[in-house]
Amino acid sequence: AMLRLRLLTWDVKDTLLRLRQPVGDSYAAEAQAHGVRVQPEALSRSFRQAYGAQSQHFPNYGRGQGLSSRQWWVDVVKQTFRLSGVRDDGILTLMAENLYRDFCSARNWEVLPGAGETLSRCRQRGFRMGVVSNFDKRLENILSHCDLRHHFDFVLTSEDAGFAKPDGRIFEQALRLGGVPPEQAAHIGDDYSRDYRAARAVGMHGFLLRAAGQSKEPEVPPEHVLPTLSHLLALIEK
C-alpha cells in the first residue's frame, strides 16, 4: 500500500551535502596562506580529537552552557591547530575566524548526486519538506549558497531546537512545524541511530541512505534502505 505521507524531513550532512575535501585539506590550505605548513592528515586527526572533546564537554555547540556556536567552532579550530603544533595566538585567531566563515559558504560544500532533482520531484508531488540536522545556525546560509534552501518549508537545527538527534524532541518539534502526526511523516538520513532509529522511535517512517557495502544493521528492512537518493520516490510510492 502507498504510504500516506505528507511531510518529509531531511538530514543534511552526507545526505544532501558533503564536504568537497577532507577537513584537514581545508585547514592546511588556510594555514599555508599564513605561511604555516601543517600536513592535512595530521590536521584531520587533530580535528577529530578536538571536535570529539569539545562535543563531550559542550554538547550541541554549548547551547545549554552559554557558549555561542561561533565561539564553540572557533575553539575547535584553534585546538585543532594547537594539537598539530601551531602556537601563535594571533594566527590561530585569524585562521579560526576565516575557517568559520569559509564553512558557511558553498566553497567547502557540494550537493550530493541526485539531491536537487529528488527534492524538486518531492516538492512537485506536494510533500511538505523540512530539514532536521545536528548543525549550527549557519545551515540556512549554507543551504541557500548551495541552492537547496527553497525546497524546504523549515530548517530545524539542533542549535535552534536545543536538542540534537537522536533525541526525539527535535523530531517532535519538526512534526509541529510540519503540522502532521508522526505516521504521516518520514525522515531521510544516512546515520542509523541518529536518523533512522531515532525517527522511528517517535513514530515516523524512516529511510536510510546507505551506499553499497556499508555495514548492514539487521533491523533495517530492505524497503527502508536507499542505495541513492533517486530511489526514494519509488519506495514511497510503492
From TrEMBL:
One Pfam family it belongs to: Hydrolase
Family: Belongs to the HAD-like hydrolase superfamily.
The species this protein was found in: Galbula dea
UniProt cross-references to InterPro entries, sorted A to Z: HAD-like_hydrolase_domain, HAD-like_sf, HAD-SF_hydro_IA, HAD-SF_hydro_IA_REG-2-like, HAD-SF_hydro_IA_REG-2-like_cap, HAD_sf
Listed name of the protein: Haloacid dehalogenase-like hydrolase domain-containing protein 3
GO cellular component: nucleus
